[in-house]
Amino acid sequence: MKKQKITELLIFIVATELVGALSGLLAGNSFSLYKELIKPPLSPPGWLFPVMWAILYALMGISAFMIYTSDAKERCKALVIYGTQLFVNFMWSIVFFRFRMFGLSVAVILTLLALIIAMIIIFRRIRPAAAYLNIPYLLWIVFASYLNIGILLLN
């Protein structure tokens, strides 16, 4: 891979990671809130979330770069969907942790889930590998939706 392409790839990864970091920062002290909540069965320990998100954001950035470097007609549409889901992802932590609006956060995460599915579908038409890189993200958001709904019902 050429040096310019490596730089572009790193920009996609770092930019996506920064969106996640900024969301976490604006969400406030999520670790203490997570400890206080009554959680549904299978809830993971709090330390797992930043580890998972670091991996998932990197995979998202790589997949977006793969779409960006394609010459497909749907490339711009795919990147708009990517950006939209990333924005909704950004908002979820703030709605859930900062504002503690668990009902609204369910609506946000279900919207995110629909956007991720749409993103995977369009990514698959352009570059299947880019779509497959987002399967762990999809599964994590399905699990996070379960946790969010459980927390809404239990708190």
List keywords for this structure.
single chain, 155 residues, 0% strand, mainly alpha, Ferritin, 7 helices
Mind sketching the topology for me?
Blueprint: H1 3-27, H2 30-36, H3 48-68, H4 75-98, H5 102-126, H6 128-132, H7 135-154
Helix pairs in contact: 1-3, 1-4, 4-5, 5-7
What's the overall average pLDDT, rounded?
98
Largest sheet properties:
none
Would you tell me the structural class of the helices and strands?
A: mainly alpha
Total domain count: 1
So, CATH architecture?
Answer: Up-down Bundle
Assess the beta-strand content as a share of residues. under 5%
Give the termini separation.
Answer: 50 Å
**Can you count the helices?**
7
Kindly identify the CATH topology. Ferritin
- State the total count of DSSP E strands: 0
How would you describe this structure to a colleague?
The chain has 155 residues and is an all-alpha fold. The chain has one domain: Up-down Bundle (Ferritin). The chain contains 7 helices and no strands. It has helices at residues 3-27, 30-36, 48-68, 75-98, 102-126, 128-132, 135-154. 26% of the residues are buried.
